[in-house]
Amino acid sequence: MTEVFVNPECPFSLKSFDLLTQLKKHSTKKVFYLRNEADFKKYIEQPFEQLYQLLIAQLSGEIIKYIDTNTKLDNDLSEPFFEYNLFSKTMKVKWDNAHFFIRIIQHGLWVGLYISERSLNRQKFIKNMQNNTTLKEILLQNTRITDNVSFFSESSQQISKINRLADWLKIVARQKTATKCIQVTRYITSAQILTFDYQQLTNEIKQLFEGIFLLFLVATCDEPITAIEKYLDQTNINIIAKYCCQQGVKKYQEENHQDAIKLFELALEHSPNLADAYRYRGKLKTELGYTDDAISDYNYLLLIQPKSYEIYDERGQIYYKIENYDKAIDDYNQSLHINSNFALAYYHRGLTYLKINNQQKALEDLCRATELFDKEKDVDNYEEAQRILKTIYPDYSEPLFTEINQNIRSKGLRISESILRRYHLALKTRKFVILSGTSGTGKTWLTKAYAEVVAAEYLLVPVAPNWTTNEDLLGYFNPMDKEYHYTAFSHFLEKAAQEYEKAQTEKRTPRPYHLILDEMNLARVEYYFAKFLSVMEVRMREGLAQIELASEKQVLLPPNLYFIGTVNVDETTHNFADKVYDRAQMIELEVCRDDLFEHLGEVDYREILMEVWDNLHLVTPFAFRVLDEINNYVNEAKLLDISWEEALDEQLLQKILPKLKGADDRVGEALKAFVDIAENKFNLSHAKASKMLKTFEQHGFTSYF
Can you give the pTM of this predicted structure? Predict the structure, then answer.
C-alpha cells in the first residue's frame, strides 16, 4: 500500500475521507451519520467551513458583489456529499440556477460552475451567446482555463485540446444542443488535497472561480458585455479603494479619527477584501476602546492574510490590552510559528508572561527579544527590553541553604537534610555531581526541584546506549552544507556562556545553568563525555575553559555551568572509569524504610506492601516511583469496583515479580518469603512466584520469563 503524505496544515485528513467512504458503503446512511456526528463535524464540516470562510475572504471584491456568500453547508447523505453553493444575489429562486459549488466526496473535492438544464440561466446563457461574436471574443481572451479543468458535453462533436473553450462554447450555445446542463469543473483527488495546506487549497479553488467567473456573468446578466467590462475594470476600482485607504491612514496619523474611519469604510465598499483598510481600522478602533470591533476586523484580516505573523502579533496586543492573556499568548505563539525570528512577538509574549507571573518564560522571551533587537539594530526596543529584564532579575542571588532545604521539602520530595546538604556543597565544590541510587528514589526529581529553587536554567538530556563519541552529545560540523548541527546540549552550553559573558559586561552575578545527563551510564561516559572530562580540570584550575565543538568553533565552559549525572546500576549499565570518579562528586540516594512507610499514607495495604519490601529489597529494591504506580493502579481499580486485594495482587505480579531474577541464594530466599506472604491472599502473584521458586530449586536460576 502506497504511503500517503499528509500536510500537517491540511484542513482535511485521512479520517475525513475514511468517514465519507464508510458513509457511502453503509446501508442506513443517516443512522451512521448520527452515530458518528461528532467525528463528521470535527473532520469534515468544521474544516470545510474554515476553508469556505478563507475562500470568501480572498475572492475578488467584484465577485463578492455578484454572489450570495451567506450560505450554509449542505449535505446529501444518499449520495453522499457535503457542499457549499454560491448563487447570484439577484436570483429569487436559487436552486437549479447558475451557481458555483464546492463539494467534498469520498475520493476528493469537486468544484466549479453548474447550470441545470431546467434553469432559466441556461436559456439566458444560450441566448446571450448566439450570434454574439464580440461576447465570444471577450470570453476567449479573458477566461482563464488550466489543463485540469473539465468541460461537460454530451455532444458527439469532439472538443480539441488546443481550442477547448472555443469548441465547448460552440456546442453548448446551440439552441438544440445535446448538452443538457452547462458545467465547468475541476476534480482534486484526496491524495492531492492531503498535500495542500489551507492556503494552497484555497488558491486552487479561487483560481478556478476567478478564471471562469465571466461564464457565470453570461448566464446571469441581461447585458453580459457591460457586466464583464465592469468586472474587468475592477483595477480602477481597486485604485480608488487604495487611495481612500491611504487618505484614511493619513487622517489616522493626524488623529482625525472620525474621518479616518469613514475613509476606511469607503475603501472597503469599493474593495471588500482590502487588507490594509481592515488593519488600520482595527488599530484605530483599538485606540478608541472598541476592542470587540477591532478583534472582528483582525479576524477577517487573518482570513485574507492567514500567514501574516505581524497580524497575529497585533491581534495578540489587543487581547493583552483587555487582559485575555491566554488568547494573547496563543496569537504570539502563532506569530512565532510563522516566523521564529520575529523579535516583537517574543517581546510581547514576554510581557504577557510577566502578567501571569511566569517569570521563567518571561525571562527566556525577553532575552531572545533583546538578541534579535540587537541584530536588527533596533536600539529603542533593545533598551526597553533590557530595562524590563533588570526588573525581573536585577542581579542573581542564590538563596540561603535553609531556604533551599525548606522549599524543596515543601515540594513533597522525601530526602534527608544531610543528602540535600551534600548535594548543595558538591555543586559548589566541583560543579560535576553524580547521583546514584535505586530506580525511583527521586534522583531526577531532586535535580529539577533544586534548580527551580535556586532559579537555575535547567536542561535534561537522556543518554542513549549507542552514544560512543563526543558528536553524539555535542553535534557535528557538516562539510556538505558548511553548517554546525547543534544538539540541545550544545545549545545549552552556548546559552550558559552567553549569560556569563553578558553578566560580566553588566557587572552582575550570572544565573546558574544546570545540565542533567539522565541515566548517564547507559553508554560509556569516558567515550561520549571525553572532551569535558579533560576540560573540567582546566576550569577547576583557571575558572574558565574553552571546549572545541568543531574546527575553528569553540564554546566557553563558564563557572555558572553545572553538570549533574543520574545513574542506576544494573546489567544494562556501564561502570565508571577512575578518571570519572576523580572529576566528580558521587552521592548515593538510599531508600529509607520509614520514608516509604510514610509515603504510602493511610492505605489498606500499607503493612502488606512494606512486608514485601522488607523481604525483597536486598535483591530487588523498589522505591517511591513503584509505590506511586501501585497506588494509582489500585485507585483506578476502585472505579471499576475491583477490590484493593485483587488490584494489589495484579500489581505484585506486574511490578514486583519481574524484578526477581538471578542465581544468588538470596533470590531463592526472597521468593520463599514472597510465596508465604501471598499464600491464600494473592492468587495470581502466588502462582507465578511458586513457579519461579520451583525453577530456582531445579536449576539454581530463575527469572520472570
Answer: 0.48
